[in-house]
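User: Hand in any protein.

Assistant:
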Amino acid sequence: MQKFKFKDLLPALILALICGTCVFLLAGTYSLTKNEIAKQEEEGALERKRTIFPDARSFDPLQVSDDIKADMEAKGIMPDEIYFAHDEHGKVLGYVFVNTGFGYAGNIVTTTGIDTEGKIVMVIATAASDTPKLGKEVEGRPFLDGFTGLSTDKEIILNKDVSAVSGATISSRAATGCINRAREAYLELKERGLV
């Protein structure tokens, strides 16, 4: 039987110390930067809304009751966020719906603007974690501009109403699904007299 020696344990202790130090430094970095990251994300979200409705002076969240929220969630159409876009006089210019879907390799977040007549004004998509040169192509205007002017009255069908990004069908389908959920949420809220 071999006798235990402290030097046999030394490499494991050194590795544990290095790992502990790394965890401590990462936690410290996160706590120092989390407020700045949240601020940048908030500014980016506001900029996307302003791009869609440049004449808007405020974007006020639409609050729905718990019952309506539960009903929309059961139907699979509850957006992550909903906003009224108001001009300088308080007139509603339209509505902004933020939805998240999973593309080929990561989340795709769509910000969809719908005017008071039920037409899509513009869509902005971010696919920060999707595959470069494929899934991220759904962020491009050639794909997203295909949604502009479409009516919310009927389902948007990929490769019929809007052409998919070549080589990124899964991410194109995910983005289209997000936009269809925004469209369905708009129709649901309109039927309930909330928009």
Notes: Strands lie at 58-61, 81-86, 92-102, 107-115, 120-126. DSSP finds four helices and five strands in the chain.
